[in-house]
From TrEMBL:
Subunit structure, interactors included: Homodimer.
Family per record: Belongs to the ABC transporter superfamily. ABCB family. Heavy Metal importer (TC 3.A.1.210) subfamily.
Subcellular locations according to the entry: Cell membrane; Early endosome membrane; Endoplasmic reticulum membrane; Endosome membrane
Residues of the full protein shown: 527 to 832 of 849
Domain ABC transporter as annotated: residue spans: 54-288
Protein name listed in UniProt: ATP-binding cassette sub-family B member 6
TM ranges: 1-15
Length: 306
């Protein structure tokens, strides 16, 4: 009993951990062979994406019946535009991303992609169009080349290198002992958080999805790394409908729309300047961040705001 119990329990814990952080969501179910929360209707058609419009229509959602996590959430992300989600811890930002990936179905309302309710299409086709850049990318114990190619298994070596260049990690890889053949992951070369995030960006570039779901890193990175990552991110998000969970407001000054969430509700929305002029929740968050950030980060925010 013990032998059986331990690994199952371990899988459960691991499963919840990766689900929470939506690390490598695309193959999680395959890898862990877990029962899926969401079941496709028999013969559910594939999602058809032509424009890349995304819409939340009065979405309500609870993980457990006693507690509503999202309440009447409505917004739209027009094709190619970027919407940022901000708000305190637990306000429901990651839940919005998980629902978009259809880890769960909404309780009420609908999520529409180019007019199709994602509840009615098969999950595999939906996920094909979603590129995820998580906060903390899990690397396989394999070569760095394999880890990047994972975004599109049919990509050529040349395409892998181009994606790495695009993601600003190519030069770094060339400093590794065996270049692109260097083993990385837990049993190989360990990469920093910023490097792992650039691997995720390179993967996403190879995948070339219609939608990018991005969970910005919470940890502070040094200014140069931060700049490299921002540059790589803006390249991968360009002309793609993008949803960003943002932790540092300085990185979303230019986005098309910012949604401010509190306890599962959108309490403010608009562009950065507009939100500041409301003198409300967002303006408070902005003041707080300016106070908290160290001089370095403050310099970056002010430069970006100019
Ligand atoms: P953070 O900035 O800390 O990541 P968040 O805004 O992304 O927070 P969510 O992760 O979306 O917040 O969580 C919203 C609420 O739902 C929280 O109160 C959280 O405790 C709850 N929650 C999240 N995942 C689950 C789950 N699997 N089961 C039950 N409750 C959950």
């Amino acid at each position: 009993i013990l032998q059986l119990y331990v690994p199952l329990n371990w899988f459960g814990t691991y499963y919840r951990m990766i689900q929470k952080n939506f690390i490598d969501m695309e193959n999680m179910f395959d890898l862990l062979n877990e029962e899926q929360e969401v079941i496709d209707a028999p013969g559910a058609p594939g999602l058809d994406v032509k424009r890349g419009a995304l819409e939340f229509n009065n979405v309500n959602f609870s993980y457990v019946p006693e507690r509503v996590v999202l309440r009447n959430v409505s917004f739209s992300a027009p094709p190619g535009k970027t919407v940022a989600l901000v708000g305190p811890s637990g306000s429901g930002k990651s839940t919005i991303i998980r629902l978009l990936f259809r880890f769960y179905d909404v309780d009420n309302g609908a999520i529409l992609i180019d007019g199709q309710n994602i509840k009615t299409v098969n999950q595999k086709s939906l996920r094909k169009f979603m590129g995820v850049v998580p906060q903390d990318t899990v690397l396989f114990n394999n070569s760095i080349k394999y880890n990047i190619r994972y975004g599109r298994l049919t990509a050529s070596d040349q395409e892998v290198v181009e994606a790495a260049q695009y993601a600003d990690i190519h030069d770094r890889i060339n400093t590794f002992p065996s270049g692109y053949d260097t083993q990385v992951g837990e049993r190989g070369l360990k990469l920093s958080g910023g490097e792992k995030q650039r691997v995720a960006i390179a993967r996403t570039i190879l995948k070339a999805p219609a939608f990018v779901l991005l969970d910005e890193a919470t940890s502070a990175l040094d200014t140069q790394t931060e700049r490299n990552i921002q540059a790589a991110l803006s390249r991968v998000c360009a002309n793609r409908t993008t949803i960003i969970v943002a932790h540092r407001l300085s990185t979303i000054i230019h986005v098309d729309e910012i949604l401010v969430l509190r306890e599962g509700e959108i309490v403010e929305r608009g562009r950065h300047e507009e939100l500041l002029s409301f003198n409300g929740v967002y303006a408070d968050m902005w003041q707080q961040q300016l106070k908290n950030e160290d001089a370095d980060a403050r310099g970056l925010a002010l430069t970006a705001a100019e």
